[in-house]
Amino acid sequence: MALIKCKECGKQFSDMAEACPNCGYNPTRAKDKALGLKPKGERKSKAVALLLTFFLFWAGGDHFYLGNIGTGVIVLIASGISVVIGLYEFVLFAVALIACINFLRIACMSSADFDQTYNKEI
Ligand SMILES: [Zn+2]
Q1: DSSP 8-state assignment for residue 118
Q2: CA distance readout (Å), 87 to 11, 46, 74, 75, 78
Q3: 3-state class of 120 per DSSP?
């Protein structure tokens, strides 16, 4: 445990503390803000994105979670129509192939790259 100097008020506080007890300055939050990232609690998780890509690719679950609503709707409609007209083998194969590529892309992304891509403050 060490003492760090508050960038806002100049007083010292423990590096174990989440924020300065004197003025409320939060170094982690300030760093996130400087990088343009959302606060920790509001961020999308890479693990959840991978699980949704793996299990709900056919419904566009990963696209909805990651904020690509348009792509999610297209995948959902394509999957739905393919089942109705009986072409689901072909369409689901194509959707699954794209999901595999998406899964590998997200899995190979570093946490920093994932945050820069999906957790930017608007
Ligand atoms: Zn302070």
Answers
A1: H
A2: 67, 32, 16, 14, 10
A3: strand
* Cα dist from 62 to 17, 42, 97, whole Å: 35, 17, 14
pLDDT for position 108: 97
Q: How far apart are CA 112 and CA 67, in angstroms?
A: 18
**What CA–CA distance (Å, rounded) separates 16 from 107?**
31
Residue list, CB under 5 A from ion ligand 1: 6, 8-9, 20, 22-23, 25
Please tell me the predicted confidence (pLDDT) of residue 28: 85
Give distance in angstroms: CA of 23 to centre of ligand 1: 4
Taking the centre of ligand 1 as the mean of its atom positions, its distance from the CA of residue 83, in whole angstroms, is 60
CA of 121 relative to ligand 1 center, distance in Å: 24
Residues written for the chain: 122
Report the candidate in 18, 13, 43, 7 with the shortest Cα–Cα distance to residue 116.
Answer: 43
Q: pLDDT at residue 122 above 80?
A: no
Burial (0-12, 13-18, 19+ Cβ within 10 Å), 49:
buried
